[in-house]
Amino acid sequence: MEKYLEELKKYAEKNHIPIISESGCDFLINFLKKIQPQKILEIGTAIGYSGSKMLLSLLNTNLITVEKKSEFVQFAYSTFKTVGVLNRAKIIHGDAFDVIQTFPRQSFDFIFLDGPKGQYLKYYPYIKNILKKGGYIFVDNIYFHNLVLGPKFVKHKLRTIVVNLRKFIDIISTDSEVKTTFYNIGDGIAIINKL
Ligand SMILES: C[S@@+](CC[C@H](N)C(=O)[O-])C[C@H]1O[C@@H](n2cnc3c(N)ncnc32)[C@H](O)[C@@H]1O
Predict the structure, then answer these.
(1) 174 pLDDT band (50/70/90 cuts)?
(2) Superfamily of the domain at 2-194
(3) If you take atom 11 of ligand 1, which residue's CA is the nearest one?
């Protein structure tokens, strides 16, 4: 399976499909092995790389993963089937903002936020609501190619994403209902623990 996922990673790189960095993925998997969540929600399936990595390292865990691009939904389905985790994975084809509002309170013990970076601010209250107490939100690319920490001026095209990520960082750092830790790994990772 690992060999297949290595090939998948190369395919993603060649075809400019964004997937989690190697260092980010190692960190994610080590963290998950420690906390052993039962139910994971992933926002941003892409071709099923991180989803497969998570499920192959956690044998008693179920995953719900959300993706808006239909060709990626098909691709991820075939990835999960090939690596033998399809029975523990459910792919929801849709816009993450609509989908997160359909789950009952405290549905998940781990949420991997790896979708549209500019939307995390808007997602946050809903994501927090569907996370169990004691659960974790793992946010990848929190520093967005270092633009979030960098100089104030950002090119117009990326400005909304960067401004929203800065506001998001502000909120998760000051929200008294959570404890957030930032890691300078990959493109920046935040782990938000719901108290
Ligand atoms: C960084 S990629 C996910 C990579 C994947 N988690 C991995 O590491 O293998 C982000 C994905 O989010 C999807 N996406 C973007 N906006 C979305 C939205 N509003 N709702 C659901 N998925 C979205 C993109 O199509 C893309 O596949």
Answers:
(1) very high
(2) Vaccinia Virus protein VP39 (3.40.50.150)
(3) 44
